[in-house]
Amino acid sequence: MDKSPSSSLPVYITALFVACLAILVGNAVSDYRNLQKLKLNNDWMEHSWSVKDHLKNINLLIMDAESSLRGYYLSDDAVYLGPWKTAVAKLNDEFSLIGQLVQDNPAQVKNLAQLQSLFKRKMKMFDENSALYKEGGLSEIVKVVHVGEGREIMDEIRLQDVIMEKEELELLTARRNRFYTEHDRALAISTGLNGIALLVLILFYRLIQNSFSKQRNVEEKLKLANDTLESTVLTRTEQLSVLSRHLLNVAEEEKAKLARELHDEMGSSLTAISMDVSMVKEKLQTRAPELATQLQRAKQALLEAVDLKRRIVEGLRPSMLDNLGLAASIQNHCEDTARMANLEIQVDIAEEFDHIDPAWAIALFRIVQESLTNVTKYAQAKRVKVSLARVNAGLTLQIQDDGIGISPDAIKKPRSHGLLGMRERALLLGGSFSVKAGAGNRGTVVEARIPFPNQAG
Q: What are residue 343's phi and psi, to 5 degrees?
């Protein structure tokens, strides 16, 4: 008798697995560091844009102050001095913000100090011109304008702005070039690691394949033993039939209970959350559009969760069975299956069966559901006919397709294709269940017959 193979993996397989895992972890760490560098570079870009924006704000504020004073000189109305006072206050804030942004850059700190000095000169000139205007009027201001000293200071301010912007741009370019160099190196390392990992995986696969080949003989012997035990298993399966029927009944009850709880409790909670998100989004639409956009995405995800909940509830307990009855539920399910599987499904149900026992309704619906699932998976059919009729003091359900049919082995082994579950549902109601080839040995016919209570047995 052959010795049973060891349950543990060979050492070389474990070693290869650990090596491959280490390579992949190293590659992940390398990618993570590269992403961190990319984030840092992006942060510096944002930093540079912030500096440029504040420099532009300073220019605009100085121009506003000049315009305000001109309006005051021309109109002699103190109202025009309001923008000038506002600009002076805001300029101090802008200089403070830029100082925080460039505090780690000595060259920019020096440039900023020079820009502030020019600003102070400009403000001093504003004050002197205001005093001169009060003493000599507009004619004195015109003389000052002809001298052109104010324009020279503004030109120096603009030049200093350009110098600072150029400094930020050079820093940003240097950082970007350094990032691309490191990125190229990381990419080369990552590609190499991936190549090594691929080779290790191929070797790993070949070793596993050889190991499976060695085990194939053992599996053939086990298959022979399994075939011998098959009849015993079937016998024991029949002995468990009663328990199986009970479990089917309990399972349907639990599914219905769970479906009700999901629909009532979770449905109301999700609806309330959706309403709150919509209300908050509307309030933030104008004040914080970015937050409103995020809330819109959150609401979309919430709607998808609601749709998922609906599908789960329908899978647990089709609501149409309780609301519209068995005939409408089967018709609706057949239409959905036909649309998704590109099938032609003919439904022949002469009655509505509105007053049928709920246990009968769920059993017949599940048989139709499982049968159509088998058709779409295995039958390769184009047309299916589903019929339900009152025949000989009972109900007869028949699902017939024109596919390739079902193998005799599958019919003999009721656990395959969900046949056991369908059979147990029919037997639970005192009926019968059969699977056979269609007319001309074409396709498959699934048939369930359930007698009314006084005809059972």
A: -115, 155
